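Quick one from the shared queue. A colleague (R.T.) flagged Sporulation YhaL family protein as missing a structural entry in our internal table.

Convert sequence to structure tokens.
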Amino acid sequence: MKNKQMQMIVLVCIGLLLFLVSGLDFSSIVLLNVEPWWMYFVILGIIISAYYFIKHSLEDKKVDDEFIEKEGQVFMERIQEDREKRKRYSEEP
């Protein structure tokens, strides 16, 4: 699971980097010469929001998978009980 999380984080970071670079002149000086200083906070906020979005979506997926597994187990137990009942009824004279 950790490997998938790391891959997702790396892919998102690369995507964000490409998104930022695509709108710029491909020069690192442009990032350092952002006129309104508060834009650094906006960029930082976007990155932090993306991180927390990925983090919480992975946690939600894990909870959903556990719930689905639990419900699937209950369903399989019911099927097994039905099979046993049918087997008992078919064996009765």
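Residues 39-91 form the longest helix (53 residues).
The chain has three helices and no strands.
Added to the table.
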